[in-house]
């Protein structure tokens, strides 16, 4: 029997919201000068997503309590937990990617 696997996205797929966007907007990370520059370069395909991540995510350092508070406002999409549980029961591996 052939084994199957599921590959899914996180933001807007398993989650109702774009979690990264909620964090970046809620903590004013998008206002930091290097972030709009990295965003523009990414949109222009001059850099990859890693450059944007390296510009934006360090702004979350030392802000765990604020991050945790914002995370309380995001929710799994209806059926996501059931889907993951079903896959686990059927021994179907699930890989969650980010885009």
Automatic annotation (TrEMBL):
InterPro entries: HAD-like_sf (IPR036412), HAD_sf (IPR023214). It comes from the Bacteria. This is Haloacid dehalogenase. The lineage of its organism: Bacteria, Bacillati, Bacillota, Bacilli, Bacillales.
């Amino acid at each position: 029997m052939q084994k199957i696997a599921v590959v899914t996205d996180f933001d807007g797929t398993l989650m109702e919201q774009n979690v990264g966007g909620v964090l970046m907007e809620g903590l004013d990370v998008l206002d930091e000068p290097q972030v709009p520059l990295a965003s523009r370069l990414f949109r222009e395909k001059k850099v990859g997503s890693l450059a944007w991540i390296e510009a934006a995510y360090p702004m979350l350092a030392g802000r765990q309590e604020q991050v945790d508070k914002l995370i309380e406002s995001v929710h799994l999409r209806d059926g996501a937990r059931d889907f993951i549980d079903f896959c686990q029961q059927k021994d179907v591996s699930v890989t969650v990617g980010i885009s």
